[in-house]
Design brief:
The protein is globular, with a radius of gyration of 18 Å. It is an all-alpha fold. About 55% of the residues lie in helices and about 0% in strands. It has two domains: about 1-35, no CATH class; about 65-215, no CATH class. Its cofactor is Mg(2+).
Length: about 250
């Protein structure tokens, strides 16, 4: 558990903590990992303004300085905000956020790639749709192979870098459009399914609501009640807040 200081910490938070202990200035904190890290899902229970949500997404990314890792949060903030407050459908929200003037061209190119791959996987006239391992092949094909001198190159489409993780998450969101099937398919592909799952859960959670989480999960997850109680204390989710639709 992080509050005890003995829990697992990934590379970038660990490096940033060391920098803080060494007195590194705040504006120089963070490492250069290009791995996607979405850490602001709870912000949607605090802010209803899109700009505030985008600011929150970048503020909590002080552990990263790589621009690719930084850019995924604002984009996904726009997607979820459109789902919650503009009554858009999934693809409409994803495309609308993609075309927003504030969305970086790198992100735009990755989302376009995911949209195209979803269409290809659903088209019975395309070879990809006939493949048994269609999702695995779809993700692998959306990013480069990274030769690091080992026996096999890293398949970046399934690994942690944002260039593969973001389009992979969008692919699962749009192909399955339901939380449980999307999470199951994402897990089966492997790679950095944990990073993808946060984006998948955040977007499809906004789209479907908490009811999308099966009762069997709610009653069996060890910390479900603990986190549920925390959420009930958030400004937009408190009783009487007038935001019951969230």
């Amino acid at each position: 558990k992080m509050e005890t200081g003995v829990g697992w910490k990934c590379t970038q938070p660990r490096q940033t903590l060391q920098q803080i202990q060494q007195g590194v200035p705040q504006d120089q904190l963070g490492g250069m990992s290009n791995a996607m890290a979405i850490r602001h899902a709870a912000a949607f229970a605090v802010y209803s303004d899109e700009k505030a949500l985008i600011d929150a997404s970048t503020t909590v990314m002080f552990t990263h300085r790589n621009s690719h890792a930084f850019l995924a949060g604002p984009y996904l903030s726009r997607v979820v905000h459109r789902l919650l407050y503009k009554n858009m459908g999934l693809r409409e929200a994803i495309e609308s956020a993609m075309n927003d003037q504030g969305t970086d061209e790198f992100i735009r190119s990755k989302v376009k790639m995911a949209l195209s791959k979803v269409d290809e996987a659903a088209d019975p006239s395309k070879p990809l749709s006939q493949e048994k391992m269609v999702d695995d092949l779809a993700l692998t094909s959306m990013a480069r192979l990274w030769d690091v001198g080992k026996s096999e190159p890293i398949k970046v489409g399934k690994a942690s870098p944002t260039e593969g993780t973001l389009p992979g998450a969008i692919y699962f969101i749009l192909k399955y459009q339901q939380l449980l099937p999307a999470l199951q398919a994402n897990a089966m592909v492997g790679g950095d399914n944990a990073s993808r799952s946060i984006a998948v859960g955040m977007v499809l959670g906004a789209y479907e609501g908490v009811e999308a989480i099966p009762e069997s999960y709610r009653t069996s997850l060890k910390h479900w009640q603990r986190y549920s109680d925390w959420l009930d204390q958030m400004p937009l989710l408190k009783k009487g807040s007038g935001k019951d639709e969230l």
